[in-house]
Amino acid sequence: MATTDTEVAMPEDGPYRDRKMTLAAHLLELRKRLMIAAAALVVGMVVAFLITDPVIHLLTQPIALVAERRGDDFAQLNFDSVTAGFDMRMRIAFALGLLMSAPVWLWQIWAFIMPGLTRKEVRYTVGFMATAIPLFFAGCYVGLVIMPHIIELMASFVPEAGAQFYKYDYYYDFVFKLLLVLGVAFVSPVFLVALNLAGIITGKAILKGWRVAVVVATAFAAISTPAADITSMLLLAGILIVLYVLAGLLSMLFDRRKRKRHPEMFVDPEV
């Protein structure tokens, strides 16, 4: 049956193929999902705000180690305005609230777009999320492990007569960006598998690029860790390379399954 201009038809093979929603209904549904996601974020921020003290203590442990090594109090987190303390707590509350409410707002996004997905796409999306989320947190954990070494090493270049005061917003941005970059780096192999499932790249092509992957992983690890901390650099580079190889092997497995189902799509051009 034909649809009107304000009516959106669901895919014939989708999980909700019998439902049809008007444009107005879609907008109402979107507003509902956004309100639920926003409410979850606010609740998460409130809870996170209550636990900012132990979080700040954890983040500033490297500064305490620097002060202990120097044997003085000239290594401190510096709050240079009246509202600086509150501002830092709000930054931490927002980041933690976003993570704590992730199951809710991810589900709202998923519930909104799911009617437009086929059953096969639903399975792929669930698998992608189930793999990407643990890898992201694993990357953040690695960031927390190497962060103290980076700060201690950089502080060693400060002259003994100098004071090492860390401006709160710069320090927070440094830690947050480090954790975010490492989290995304750990998730990148999942994107390679997603590209393979979409038919954009083969597992053989992924593994064939291992030399480039080794160079990129080593360069990224060298940038993310201090030049003198070879152990952290090699550890991070090794983890990234292993994840890359696993993505290639998994993609080759998917290619083999696709070749069995659709042999006509994998004809050797040299034959």
From TrEMBL:
The chain crosses the membrane at residues 34-52, 92-113, 125-151, 171-198, 210-228, 234-254. Keywords: Cell membrane, Membrane, Protein transport, Translocation, Transmembrane, Transmembrane helix, Transport. Pfam families: TatC. It is found in: Cell membrane; Membrane. The keyword ATP-binding does not apply. The keyword Metal-binding does not apply. GO terms for cellular component: TAT protein transport complex. One of its GO terms (biological process) is protein transport by the Tat complex. GO terms for molecular function: proton motive force dependent protein transmembrane transporter activity. It is a multi-pass membrane protein. The Tat system comprises two distinct complexes: a TatABC complex, containing multiple copies of TatA, TatB and TatC subunits, and a separate TatA complex, containing only TatA subunits. Substrates initially bind to the TatABC complex, which probably triggers association of the separate TatA complex to form the active translocon. Belongs to the TatC family. HAMAP family: TatC (MF_00902). PANTHER family: SEC-INDEPENDENT PROTEIN TRANSLOCASE PROTEIN TATC, SEC-INDEPENDENT PROTEIN TRANSLOCASE PROTEIN TATC, CHLOROPLASTIC-RELATED. Part of the twin-arginine translocation (Tat) system that transports large folded proteins containing a characteristic twin-arginine motif in their signal peptide across membranes. Together with TatB, TatC is part of a receptor directly interacting with Tat signal peptides. This is Sec-independent protein translocase protein TatC.
